[in-house]
Amino acid sequence: MRWIDGVWLFFALVLGMGVSTGAIADWRLDNTQSSVNYSTVKNGSVIEYNQFRNIGGSITKAGEVSVTIDLTSVDTRIPIRDERMKKELFVTEKYPLTTLSANVDPVMLSNMTAGKTQAIEVVFSLELHGMKQELKAQMQVTGLENGGLLVSTIWPVNIGAEQFGLEKGVEALREIAKLNSILLSVPVNVNMVFVK
Known about the structure:
The longest helix is centred in the first third of the chain and has 16 residues, at 3-18. The chain has helices spanning 3-18, 79-90, 106-110, 167-176, and strands spanning 25-29, 35-42, 46-52, 55-60, 64-70, 74-75, 97-103, 117-128, 131-143, 149-153, 157-160, 185-195. It is built from 4 helices and 12 strands.
């Protein structure tokens, strides 16, 4: 699958979440107010911040959470590095998307009035680069006006390259950039707004 096909698939999924599943999705992720970012460390001490510009998702009244990240939307603030990330690390021609799914307490969701905040631990399934792993995250859910939800990480979620078979991609990036090292683990933070 070419990366452009992956982009169209991503937007089809997002539109599907907002339209065709409208009857079952009680909250829809607002991409314009949401962010998924991570930091990398090269040469032992140089920290760089990156993000994904296109994400979609939904939460049902039953507490079923689904989030899709368009890996072709990676933004490192350096275009040539974005292209290298897509080609060498994420291999977006084959794996354009990553998906996350979880279940949260539906009673807690129904009680989230505007201004109320609840800390929760979430066990979620992450599918990346053709591999699926279960991970844990410490999250905070805050009720918003008009029935919306703000879902944020309390602590970053550490994702290891070896968990998803990404070590060769990291090594390829290190060689291309002529670096001494790139850490194989990255902390990921999310700040997601779901609208009713």
